[in-house]
Specification:
Blueprint lengths: L7 E6 L6 H15 L6 E6 L5 H8 L4 E5 L16 H7 L3 E4 L2 H6 L4 H14 L2 E6 L3 H5 L3 H12 L5 H4 L3 E4 L13 H18 L2 H6 L2 E4 L7 H5 L6 E4 L6 H13 L1
Parallel strand pairs: 1-2, 1-8, 2-3, 3-4, 4-5, 5-6, 6-7, 7-8
The structure holds 2-phosphoglycolic acid.
């Protein structure tokens, strides 16, 4: 298809891991390994809020970009424990993960709040990585496409054609996250192509071809190349394997070659 027009993006999602000194150490280890990806693959580390400033400082002058793992939709106000898009921008953050299945599962995130967070992130100049994916039971009931179509439509509600090109979609089947169960490359490709078809329906074909779609869910050094070789899989959102510099680098190199 049109892989050449899209940016390949490999993003680490550290989740709730690493203190500041540990974060610095991991980034310093990753930096020289992935330097050759510059201009070919966008490399991002999405880190806990407390590590953002450390990550921005440690990645300065390198080709690694920094992302947060969530953002609130209000500009400011009485939202104890939350962080606004302006606060992230001020620290030097460029990307933000929105609607991760762990947030949907444990913290009451809905498609409506994902949509509001996405709009707030875009308005502040952040690039959202919007996560979608079906539950195991939904796949077993054969409604994966309905679930994904609904998420894409609601999560991107009223996002303009210009703005959607700044959005990265991460297809993360919930049953594959942190379980060691990876979707087969064919399963992942099938849904990523379906997501692109939905984008073409909601926007147009040219826009759909411009959006980076990642796969996430137990992507690792061993299976990344095969997944990334698929025509509609433009990158990966990596959890566990992003916490080990050599493994993360192997995935980045697979994208460089892919
Ligand atoms: P995993 O996590 O790679 O550990 O399965 C992926 C994610 O949650 O983004």
């Amino acid at each position: 298809m049109n892989k050449a027009v899209r940016k390949a993006i490999i993003a680490g999602n550290w989740k709730m891991n690493k203190t500041r000194p540990e974060a610095k150490e991991l980034i310093e280890a990753i930096k020289p390994l992935v330097a050759n990806a510059e201009g070919k693959v966008e490399v991002i580390t999405c880190v806990p809020f407390t590590n953002l400033e450390t990550a921005v400082a440690a990645t300065a002058g390198s080709n690694i970009k920094v992302g947060a793992e969530n953002v609130h939709f209000a500009k400011s106000g009485a939202f104890t424990g939350e962080i606004s898009a302006d606060m992230l921008v001020e620290v030097g953050v460029e990307y933000v993960v929105i609607g991760h299945s762990e947030r949907r599962q444990y913290f009451g995130e809905t498609d409506e709040t994902v949509n509001k967070r996405t709009a707030a992130a875009l308005a502040a100049g952040l690039k959202p990585i919007v996560c979608v994916g079906e539950l195991k039971w939904e796949r077993e009931c054969n409604i994966t496409e309905e679930v994904i179509a609904r998420q894409i439509k609601l999560d991107l509600w009223e996002v303009s054609k210009e703005d959607v090109k700044k959005v990265v979609i991460a297809y993360e089947p919930v049953w594959a996250i942190g379980t060691g169960l990876t979707a087969t490359p064919d399963q992942a490709q099938e849904v990523c192509a379906f997501i692109r078809a939905q984008l073409a329906k909601l926007y147009d074909e040219e826009t759909a071809q411009a959006v980076t779609i990642q796969y996430g869910g137990s992507m690792n050094a061993g299976n990344a190349a095969e997944l990334l070789a698929k025509p509609d899989i433009d990158g990966g959102l990596i959890g566990g394997a992003s916490l080990k510099a050599p493994d993360f680098n192997t995935i980045v190199q697979a994208a460089v070659e892919g």
